[in-house]
Amino acid sequence: MSVRELVVLGTASQVPTRHRNHNGYLLRWDGEGILFDPGEGTQRQMLRAGVAAHDLNRICVTHFHGDHSLGLAGVIQRINLDRVPHEVTAHYPKSGQRFFDRLRHATAYRETVALTEAPVDEDGELAVTPAYTLDAHRLSHPVESYGYRVTEPDGRRMLPDRLAAHGIKGPDVGRLQREGVLNGVTLDDVSEIRRGQRFAFVMDTRLCDGVYALADGCDMLVIESTFLDEDTDLAVEHGHLTAGQAATVAREAGVRHLVLTHFSQRYTEPDDFERQARAAGFEGELTVAHDLLRVPVPKRR
Predict the structure, then answer these.
(1) CA nearest 215: which of 126, 144, 166, 282?
(2) Catalytic: which of 37, 55, 67, 82?
(3) Which end of the chain is more exposed for a tag (fewer CB within 10 A), N or C?
(4) DSSP 3-state assignment of 95?
(5) CA dist 92 → 75, 100, 116, 224, 256 (Å)
(6) What would the DSSP string read from start to end of 104-142?
(7) Are strands 294-296 and 285-288 parallel, antiparallel or unpaired?
């Protein structure tokens, strides 16, 4: 059975706390796993969350600050130690190639797995699979940073009342789906577009066009909210978002499920982030993330 869910491995920003590990997020998308921003301690958090190296097909790094990338060395070595049988692809800002190289070869180990490097240097499409398209958009942070978006291809929803009206049933339904027309009846006559699911991952950034492009129409938006609204000046100065800003983006973009994360160590009350997000007018499903949380991607509309 296909599973689409977010596994939260860590939710801290620059400094981990007793209750928050550095960043780490696994998106399970049917039979594939996409690991976003493996910060320090990710390998151990994977163990605690029941995530194996064999679950990983892609690694997506938004930028090369330590809380988003220091776990790369351990994760890559674990992939090789466990002899993951399939190709694993790593995406990261091309400007940080020297950092990726250092982390990949931080210590001696035996390379047994084909790790494909696919750095990002502009907005656009990174990969197309039968299950999704992966895109990247540039964000606004003191170092080059990209957000990522996963989009399922649109499908078709068959409409039983229209099929019955045209006398189409049994094997003929499948034939119509394959061929597009049956006895003068077209697929458009008896079905409608079923929009594919959309997921976006937005980390360290100020408000910018890339944030809105990534969030647009998403079923699930995972987005940083490092600061509370009273510290907006700090957020702008350091290239981050507040809870209210993140929620405003989600509201304006039509997001269905908003997941707030990447919290500064100065805050200890998660309810403050939820309260400010609601005050910004976001009325959809809202999760203030905590470590080892599992969040299902909303069902298709």
Answers:
(1) 282
(2) 67
(3) N
(4) helix
(5) 15, 8, 12, 18, 27
(6) HTSS-----S-EEE--B-SSEEEEE-SS-EEEEEE--SS
(7) unpaired
* 6 Ramachandran zone, left/alpha/beta (phi>0; psi -120 to 50): beta
- For residue 83, give the DSSP letter: T
- The reply to whether 161 belongs to the active site is no
DSSP states along 155-206? EEEE-HHHHHHTT--THHHHHHHHHSEETTEEHHHHEEEEPPPEEEEE-S--
Euclidean distance between CA atoms 157 and 140, whole angstroms: 39
Give per-residue pLDDT as tens, 56-73.
Answer: 999 999 999 999 999 999
Q: Read off the pLDDT of residues 248-300 as tens digits, 9 standing for 90 and up.
A: 999 999 999 999 999 999 999 999 999 999 999 999 999 999 999 999 999 98
> Helix/strand/coil (H, E, C) string of 3-70?
CEEEEEEECECCCCCCCCCCCEEEEEECCEEEEECCCCCHHHHHHHHCCCHHHCCEEECCCCCHHHHC
| 124 exposure class (CB count in 10 Å sphere: 0-12, 13-18, 19+) | exposed
Q: What is the pLDDT of residues 180-229, one digit of tens each?
A: 999 899 999 988 889 999 999 999 999 999 999 999 999 999 999 999 99
Q: What is the DSSP letter of 207?
A: S
Measured in whole angstroms, the distance separating CA 41 from the mean position of its chain's CA atoms is 19
Residues β-bridged to residue 104: none
